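Example 3.2
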Amino acid sequence: MSARAIWRLMLGFYVGLFFAFLFGPLIVMSVTAFNTPDYPQVWPFEGFTLDWFARLWADRNLMEGLVNSFVIGGFVVVLSVPLGLAGAIVMTQIYAPARSLYYLVVVSPVLTPGVIIGISTVIFWKDVSELTGARSLFNGLFLATLGQATFISAYVMLIFLSRLQRYDRVQEEAALDLGASQTQAFFDIFLPYMRPAIFSAAVIAFLSSFENYNTTTFAILANKTLTTVLAGRVRAGTTPAISAMAVVIIAVTLVGAIAYEAVKRAELRRETARAAARPA
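Structure, written as tokens:
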């Protein structure tokens, strides 16, 4: 056997092992969601069933946690995207000597353990609610949203900074020279250019919020999210209903990814058609 053949064989083995490590647990969990035993098992496959999906739907704790995760994720996006965009814009506008210090300050939440962020959020807003008498501020959903947005907005800012590195201000300056206001230049030139980064940042912010556990488990107080409910279930002993939840999440993710790719390809075809239709 030649050295080239051995190289191909080893490369194929490595790639197969990599994908088995990556997708193996997902496949195993998906199979257990359709097996009849009460404990998740792949083999022996005793019978096909959809009962675990029905039990998942009837599980009030899981459904409440899922709804809370969506609510918190939505509010985190609403907070994190504008904050991250503002932080990225300030980074490009301040004097160069101050950028290192500013960058250290705004990125520091990413380096802070989630446990510390969660505990400090609870302590701070407990004192604020007692001093102001606004007891409604000491709410688990509110605290979890603020705690998550603290570090997720820093992730979002990094996404915007990578996009801004390729931003050419010539068009914006030309618009201002032609009489456009700063507001018009912002909404008609800057935001359209940042639209892909805004969409990506919103998706990453939502997913980061949806799967967060360290900060959420301390800030959520008496409420619950999907991750906190799942953590409690796994400690107490898992059931195939958890596998059914994983199958639903995987399916939604795949559908969303396929839909996004289809939209992007359709947009690319339209742009290609418009470019071909322009006179030379």
